[in-house]
Amino acid sequence: MTVLAPQARQPRIGGEPVWMRTLVIGVVVAFIVLMLVIPLIAVFAQALAKGTGPFIEAITQPDALSAIGLTLLTAVIAVPFNALFGVIAAWAIAKHHFAGKSLLISLIDLPFSISPVVAGLAYVLVFGLQGWAGSWLVDHDIKIIFAVPGIVLATVFVTFPFVARQLIPLMQAQGVDEEEAAITLGASGLKTFWRVTAPNIRWGLLYGVLLCNARAMGEFGAVSVVSGHIRGVTDTMPLHVEILYNEYDFTGAFAVAALLCLLAVITLVAKAALEALAPEVSGHAV
Amino acid sequence: MPYDRDEIDRSPAVEASLNPVSATLQPTAAAAVSVRGVKKAFARFPALNDVSLDVRPGELLALLGPSGSGKTTLLRSIAGLEFPDEGRILFDDQDVTFAAAAERGVGFVFQQYALFRHMTVARNIAFGLDVKKGRDRPRRAAIAARVEELLKLVELDGLGQRYPAQLSGGQRQRVALARALAVSPRVLLLDEPFGALDATVRKSLRRELRRVHDAAGVATVFVTHDQEEALELADRVAVLNQGRIEQVGAPDDLQNHPATAFVAGFVGQANRIEGEVRAGLFRAGALELDAGGVAEGAAVAFVRPDQLQVAERGLDLVIDRIAGSALVVELESLDASGRRVEIALPRHSAPAFLARGTTITVGAVAGHVFPAS
Description:
Largest interface: A-B, 17 and 28 residues
Number of strands of chain B: 19
Structural class of chain B: alpha+beta
Strand content of chain B: 25-35%
Strand order of the largest sheet of chain A: 1-2
Distance between the termini of chain A: 47 Å
Strand order of the largest sheet of chain B: 6-7-8-3-9-10
Mean pLDDT of chain A: 85
Radius of gyration of chain A: 24 Å
Oligomer: heterodimer
Structural class of chain A: mainly alpha
Low-confidence stretches of chain B: 1-28
Number of helices of chain B: 12
Largest sheet of chain A: 2 strands, antiparallel
Shape of chain A: globular
Helix content of chain A: over 70%
Number of strands of chain A: 2
Largest sheet of chain B: 6 strands, mixed
Shape of chain B: elongated
Radius of gyration of chain B: 24 Å
Helix content of chain B: 25-40%
Low-confidence stretches of chain A: 1-8, 280-286
Mean pLDDT of chain B: 87
Strand content of chain A: under 5%
């Protein structure tokens, strides 16, 4: 009885003692505040340390504007591309059986497991001046490395898994019953996709696209290798932040960094709003 | 030893003369669906092994078998969701073996209903008409009228604007049925239609399916592992086991003339009694049963509880449990080796001395004897 007594006195919620819950939640909150929230606030504080004037001046410089433009252009190309191929890959994997399927699933994860710098170097090896395709590209006057196409390619590589990874478990959970039902009712493959498959994955797709977009705008490593850092030409926002920082232009660096953060925050808010709208994105069945 | 000769003799001539109703029902028109010598294997595991089956126009046919017997594979092959490795499938004499599911004009009701979750009930039912191409697509008003008609048929009037998630299991099942019927299919196929429902809903929906089938008049095939469901609902039952059809027949035929030991064991709630056949007579201890035409040697008899009655000579059984209804006394008893034997005695002829633990001797008035496999 003496052993049981303390337990009996503790009010229990969800099976654990209250002190345990408080401790676990406290650790998580403290960690998030220390590692994520404070640095984020610091970025905005530093950016606005000398007032809004220098901030606006820093982000409206020609080089900064060019970097913003290039970042947006990269995202505008890479995100739809990966959304399309992510949907196709997820559809093929989740709804069909074929040889080498598990290998394909592993390959889709490759960009997550490989260092972005290595990915960038690989592109330099293939498309660079000394690379396999180098002389052919020079002959045909096509510039990929140290130019915009290289930056887009590297970004596509790094952000490829987001949409596919989001959709594969969703589509697998939904199974093929609804598609089969549509087919027996006389729907063609394309109609089945547009009327049955697509509406069932729209929230998952949107969520995957948001994550893909956030990473496409923020990618540094792979882009840094293939960009060549030509100011006003091949600098994206993350690269521009580094350049300004290395030149001790802290206001400028943090101003552009704050702008990047703002894009990330907008993405997260949009994601949270979507989750509130569509419960199945967070894993609950309708 | 009294026995019922009719139940033992299974020669086709006798069967036909005994069963004039089924003889006159032999169809003159082509079968609605004809499955001919179909074989299908999944990763070298045979799912269908030379299956042939005719579905008559307008009939309600059950595919009955244990799980893994190939019944769902057969149903999906008819629908065009699987394709046979060998053999042919015909609809009204037209070869559809390799026709796509979308071209076959079947109505398929899935075990989990597979309703389109993002569409209302009305849109679900209208789907098959909505996706028709060009001139084949009815006008919007015609589609709406058809949806109303079907909602009425399955008794869901007024629920057209609900979403599947807002319906009960039984209601979803009705929507799935209405959706399958909307395209006026050549054949209606149902995969374990009551599998996901609780017992009471299951019973009422059985009658519902029979009513809807009779109203629509379409040839219908449904898959089930529940012999009671198959016997109660179907005009004819095809019993499958290990990818083969063991027997096709009216529910009464299967009960009275099981073609194989498997059918006798699976379809009837028969007691399985092991014994031996010598000179046309089956013996298990002192219990005897006519076994004309059964090979000599080890054999097994299937005897329904109502085919056992108190006798002078026969099996000695110890009563373990007594239950029953107004008409029948049901006894669960144990034989010498501890095997359970069920007996159903008409109440008027049940002995007065029955009690738990007492021993009674029973003989078999009829039964089905098969060589032990």
